[in-house]
Specification:
By secondary structure, this protein is of the alpha/beta class. 39% of the residues lie in helices and 11% in strands. The relative contact order is 0.20.
């Protein structure tokens, strides 16, 4: 089982669309069992995989990650994370082996409180161990776990990294979207050293690329040098069909969800490249 976090310190870089697209193609094309963990309080990944009405129902019943983190802050240790896993959620008949652990907007209210959680028995109440302690018994139920992280390096993101053996950085090849990449790599390396757990950077995924933009071309060439992290060969051009895939709608095929103008081939290539790179992570 390989676990990969998707991170960028800037929003709007197609991080969530990349997460959902990758999960869908790993399932629908390659027959892999995938768990998507939406740990971002914005919940965009959740509402891409289940409709908003379903999310509201789960949220009102406490069946989201909010209940796990809120319980940890109170010193409770009885939350069963299996109870909130949503099965076969992609909405695509071709990709029926994608499961989801949903997020909640309510997590915005507790982000700053996580650090105040009580130490617990044997001082096991570490604020970066909340998610790890909840899922460690899940074992090998999945081939891949993909985690959609918030655009920061706070405790919620550190919880995601704590259970990850790798991470990827979706980024638009512009100044604002790539500015924080060195900081991400530096912070993840420092965190990995601190917890004595390797977290490998699989690479940067270039998104929303505009070939007619001189700025995009220059920054893409710089990213290819791999100074901070390797660049994935698969590059996603700016595309309205991919943007439209952010709206949940039940369909039969991956092409219906992600478009017919070459996006299918792009996501398939990304899934192949991801599996090759993840396979070499110990």
């Amino acid at each position: 089982m390989k676990t990969t976090a998707l991170i960028n310190l800037k929003g709007g870089v197609a991080k969530t669309t990349t997460t959902v697209g990758l999960a869908s193609f790993l399932s629908g094309v390659f027959g892999k069992k995938v768990l998507v963990i939406d740990i971002d309080p914005q919940t965009n990944c959740t509402t891409m995989l289940i409709d908003e009405e379903k999310w509201e129902e789960l949220n009102s019943q406490g069946l989201t990650l909010y209940s796990l983190f809120a319980g940890a802050i109170k010193g409770e240790d009885s939350f069963n994370i299996s109870s909130i896993i949503q099965k076969n959620v992609s909405g695509i008949k071709e990709a029926e082996t994608v499961d989801l652990i949903p997020s909640s907007l309510n997590m915005i209210d507790i982000q700053d409180e996580i650090a105040t959680m009580p130490p617990g028995k044997f001082f096991a109440g570490n604020p970066v161990e909340i998610l790890r302690r909840a899922i460690w018994k899940m074992g090998g139920n999945y081939d891949y776990i993909l985690i959609d992280c918030p655009p920061n390096m706070g405790l919620i993101t550190l919880n995601a990294l704590r259970i990850s053996d790798s991470y990827m950085i979706p980024a638009i090849p512009d100044i604002l979207s790539t500015y924080g990449i060195p900081q991400i790599v530096k912070r993840v390396n420092a965190f990995a050293d601190n917890i004595a757990h390797d977290i490998e950077c699989l690479g940067i995924i270039a998104t929303k690329f505009r070939a007619k933009s001189n700025l995009h071309m220059r920054i893409l060439e710089r990213l290819k040098e791999g100074k901070d992290a390797p660049l994935f060969d698969t590059i996603f051009p700016e595309n309205n069909d991919i943007a439209a895939a952010a709206m949940y709608r039940p369909v039969n095929t991956l092409r219906q969800r992600f478009g017919y103008g070459g996006q299918y081939d792009k996501f398939k290539a990304l899934a192949e490249e991801y599996m090759r790179r993840a396979e070499h992570v110990s």
